[in-house]
Design brief:
Layout: E1 4-7, H1 19-27, E2 32-37, H2 45-62, E3 74-77, H3 78-84, H4 93-103, E4 108-113, H5 130-145
Parallel strand pairs: 2-4
Antiparallel strand pairs: 1-3, 2-3
Length: 154
């Protein structure tokens, strides 16, 4: 069986060649590895703003934050997977995973990843809506204080 799970968004934004960086971090003892995008210039305003708001709320409730909460490039060890388990769908997944990681005190590392953005004319309409962001923001306090590994969908 596998010893880890590696997540990579299906929209072509992440280079699979970087998986080795995630494997190296897991092999050095980290429970979770979080991708952090370095070239966010082409990210939509709504995503940048949502990322910022989520970081502010997490800083208040958890006393810590991650530069890029919404990057979908991640890796989790097999033993940590059951603690990270999430109930959210869509855009709540990444944030709920981080909340669970902190709740269980798992050690993590950030790995810088370059993002491949499609040209504007090739890019599909961003499905992320302000309502998605509001749902995630409202669920963060719930994830902070709920019983472990139970929840509602975002």
């Amino acid at each position: 069986g596998a010893e880890a799970v590696i997540f990579i968004d299906a929209d072509g934004q992440h280079d699979p060649k970087l998986i080795t960086k995630f494997e190296e971090a897991l092999n050095s003892g980290d429970d979770v590895v979080i991708g952090v995008r370095i070239n966010k210039g082409q990210m939509s305003f709504i995503r940048k703003f949502g990322n910022w708001m989520i970081r502010v709320v997490l800083a208040i409730l958890y006393g810590q934050t991650i530069d890029d909460m919404l990057c979908g490039y991640r890796a989790i060890t097999k033993k940590s997977y059951s603690k990270i388990v999430w109930t959210s769908r869509r855009y709540g997944v990444e944030t709920e995973m981080i909340c669970n990681m902190w709740k269980y005190g798992l050690n993590y590392r950030k790995v810088v990843v370059e993002t491949i953005y499609a040209q504007k004319k090739e890019r599909k309409k961003d499905c992320f809506t302000p309502m998605d962001g509001i749902k995630v923001l409202l669920l963060i306090p719930y994830w902070r204080w709920r019983s472990k590994n139970t929840g509602i969908n975002a």
